[in-house]
Design goal:
CATH topology: Rossmann fold
Strand content: 5-15%
CATH class: Alpha Beta
CATH architecture: 3-Layer(aba) Sandwich
Strand order of the largest sheet: 5-4-6-7
Largest sheet: 4 strands, parallel
Keywords: Transferase
Number of helices: 16
Pfam family, one: Sulfotransfer_1
Order of helices and strands: HEEEHEHHHHEEHHHEHHHHHHH
Family: Belongs to the sulfotransferase 1 family.
Bound molecules: 3'-phosphate-adenosine-5'-diphosphate
Number of strands: 7
InterPro entries: P-loop_NTPase (IPR027417), Sulfotransferase_dom (IPR000863)
Protein name: Sulfotransferase
Distance between the termini: 47 Å
């Protein structure tokens, strides 16, 4: 099938494999991935046809629940630090949810917000959950974050139960076991997760200057080191003078889960997309899956993912840092 287009794609979409068991959205399998129907019908074609990339754009990419909100906050605060020093009491991240500071490419276009995306000052920071193979062409730098799939699954399941009501779907009875079975079959939003990860991993190996591959767990271990690497990759490394003033540390502090949780806009109300803002901030740790899943369930997820990753060169069981710069002793 050709790339989706606004005109008439609805009828073509009806012929794609359908998955309705993972709330809240109906998913269709396209180019090897399970995408929400709206993304497929509107967001993807609009992003491909109408996105006018700029050479200094930074695109933040992730599988859902892998650290997107944190990455958005860090990248936004870093790119905008001249206009908004992290210490400023009126910093946008002290007033708005990170999702309202960094728009999702597909969603922005799907909601006909082209003008807003065009009006963003350079360097623009944008985000996407699209797999690498479906990104619009002509993009520039991509920062990808991945996370232990067991924590992704649990975070996603809890989020789904909490926010599905905003789109009129009751997901209260959706069990973790059901979520796990669908996740292991790759039948979840933007799944299979392992294929999503493997594509970006491969791209980061092929073109290191174009795709930076980060791991959420490494970011937790060394947030300042991770931020330095990211800033350098984004083309706005911290100067020695900024280092002396502790700017990188101040950004990490501003974007910490504890600080973001206390922001009123993140405690109450909803994001521009209508989602309860507090749903994006929970524990933010590595390994919380074991509070919800049995070891046997964890093993099933690990096996499904490692199986899917075979031949990709990437493994979640390999604790080697994705980027040597992250290792303080390297
Ligand atoms: P999204 O893809 O829907 O935007 P995303 O931000 O990737 O969601 O995932 C939310 C997870 O990131 C939550 O993990 P948990 O459920 O395991 O707790 C959330 O707590 C965590 N998170 C959000 N903000 C931060 C932050 N500032 N630092 C660390 N983790 C964070």
């Amino acid at each position: 099938m050709d790339s989706p287009h606004d005109d008439g794609f609805a009828s073509e979409m009806a012929e794609l494999p359908l998955e309705t068991r993972y709330p809240p959205f109906a998913l269709r399998q396209y180019a090897g991935f399970w995408l929400p129907e709206r993304t497929l019908a509107r967001g993807l074609p609009a992003a491909r046809d109408r996105f006018a990339p700029r050479p200094d754009d930074v695109l933040l990419a992730s599988f859902p629940k892998s650290g997107t909100t944190w990455l958005k906050a860090l990248a936004f605060a870093t790119a905008r630090r001249a206009a908004h020093p992290p210490s400023a009491h009126d910093h946008p991240l002290r007033q708005r949810n990170p999702h309202d500071c960094v728009p999702f490419l597909g969603i922005g276009f799907a909601l006909d917000k082209d003008v807003e995306l065009e009006a963003l000052p350079s360097p623009r920071v944008l985000a996407t959950h699209l797999p690498f193979s479906l990104l619009p062409t002509g993009r520039s730098r991509v920062v990808y974050v991945c996370r232990d799939p067991k924590d992704v699954l649990v975070s996603c399941w809890l989020f789904t139960r909490k926010v599905s009501e905003s789109v009129g779907v009751d997901a209260e009875s959706f069990s973790l076991r059901e979520a796990m079975e669908l996740f292991c079959a790759g039948r979840c939003m933007y799944g299979p997760q392992w294929l999503h990860v493997a594509e970006y991993w491969e791209a980061s190996r092929r073109a290191a200057g174009e795709v930076l591959f980060l791991r959420y767990e490494e970011m937790l271990r060394d947030p300042v080191g991770s931020l330095r690497t990211m800033a350098e990759f984004m083309g706005c490394a911290f100067s020695p003078e900024e280092e002396e003033r502790g700017v990188a540390r101040a950004i990490v502090e501003l974007c910490s889960l504890d600080k973001l949780k206390k922001v009123e806009a993140n405690r109450k109300g909803r994001t521009a997309a209508g989602i309860k803002a507090d749903a994006y901030f929970r524990k933010g740790v590595a390994g919380d899956w074991s509070s919800h899943m049995t070891p046997e369930m964890g093993k099933m997820v690990d096996e499904a993912v490692e199986d899917g990753l075979q031949g990709s060169g990437f493994s979640f069981t390999d604790s080697t840092p994705a980027n040597p710069e992250f290792c303080p002793d390297a």
